[in-house]
């Protein structure tokens, strides 16, 4: 099934069964996932703790898909080398967590990974205008980061649309990703606003359907 304008789906393993992580990633890859989204949380930037570089390294050996590593951590500059060496293809840091965002972005690129920047729902888009030409990916949070399975914050698509306009005006190639509460019911809305990469956790890894069924449902909704 061809997706609209080559939109990519990045299942977030946060909602996967961690006791069968390799098998679940394999299932997602076979079902047409484009990237694997890895949510790293430190209990400081967000009120939850998840995984670190060791798990990224293990995942690296069980999939060929790009690893899209979303760092929801304070002082990410201290850890990006470890995440790059573990095999991350894209490393995304939060603008709110970086005192020297430009330096962090340059470091990520020097380490051979693609650089992404994310902002929380209450952070104004204008905060990242200066960094846009330097990054490969801009991740718009459509929930407050910290947990899977939260409800999409209505209006996040307007932020995506404003970002789309800004990127087009600048004539740069930065991709737009959206993360939080994405389902087959709202995927088309965010794609129409300009999102090119959709993160989906609980809509892909859940007990109601197989991973393949869930991925097909989201892809069909934007086909
Ligand atoms: C939230 C994470 C998301 C999360 C998405 O803090 O960054 O990637 O796993 O999960 P869903 O799709 O269930 O909102
Ligand atoms: Zn995420």
What does this protein structure show overall?
By secondary structure, the protein is of the alpha/beta class. 30% of the residues lie in helices and 18% in strands. The protein has an eight-stranded parallel beta sheet with strand order 1-8-7-6-5-4-3-2. Helix 5 packs parallel to helix 6. Bound molecules: D-xylitol-5-phosphate and zinc ion.
Short description:
The chain is α/β, with parallel strands linked by helices. It is built from 7 helices and 8 strands, in the order βαβαβαβαββαβαβα. It has helices spanning 21-30, 53-60, 80-85, 101-110, 156-170, 187-193, 211-221; strands at residues 8-11, 36-41, 67-72, 90-94, 114-119, 137-141, 175-179, 197-200.
End-to-end separation in angstroms reads 7 Å
Any ligands, ions or cofactors bound here, and which? D-xylitol-5-phosphate, zinc ion
Encode the helix/strand succession as letters.
EHEHEHEHEEHEHEH
Residue share in helix? 25-40%
Read across the widest sheet, the strand sequence of neighbours is: 1-8-7-6-5-4-3-2
The number of strands is 8
Strand content: 15-25%
- Number of helical stretches of at least 4 residues: 7
The largest sheet is:
8 strands, parallel
- Tell me the radius of gyration: 16 Å
| Model regions low in confidence, pLDDT < 50 over at least 5 residues | none
* Morphology: globular
The average pLDDT value, as a whole number, equals 97
Please state the structural category: alpha/beta
């Amino acid at each position: 099934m061809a997706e609209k304008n080559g939109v990519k789906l990045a299942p977030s393993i946060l909602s996967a069964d961690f006791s069968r992580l390799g098998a679940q990633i394999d299932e997602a890859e076979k079902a047409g996932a484009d990237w694997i989204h890895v949510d790293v949380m430190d209990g400081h930037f967000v009120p939850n703790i998840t995984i670190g570089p060791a798990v990224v390294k293990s995942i690296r050996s069980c999939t060929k898909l790009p690893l899209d590593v979303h760092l929801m951590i304070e002082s990410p500059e201290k850890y990006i080398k470890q995440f790059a060496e573990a095999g991350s293809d894209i490393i995304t840091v939060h603008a709110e967590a970086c005192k020297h965002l430009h330096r962090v972005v340059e470091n990520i690129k020097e380490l051979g990974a693609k650089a992404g920047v994310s902002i929380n729902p209450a952070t104004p888009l204008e905060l990242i205008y200066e960094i846009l030409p330097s990054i490969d990916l801009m991740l718009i949070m459509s929930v407050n980061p910290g947990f899977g399975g939260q409800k999409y914050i209505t209006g996040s698509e307007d932020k995506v649309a404003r970002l789309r306009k800004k990127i087009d005006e600048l004539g740069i190639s930065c991709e737009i990703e959206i993360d939080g509460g994405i389902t087959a019911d709202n995927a088309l809305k965010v794609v129409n606003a300009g999102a090119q990469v959709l993160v989906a956790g609980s809509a892909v890894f859940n007990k109601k359907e197989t991973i393949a069924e869930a991925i097909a449902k989201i892809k069909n909704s934007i086909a």
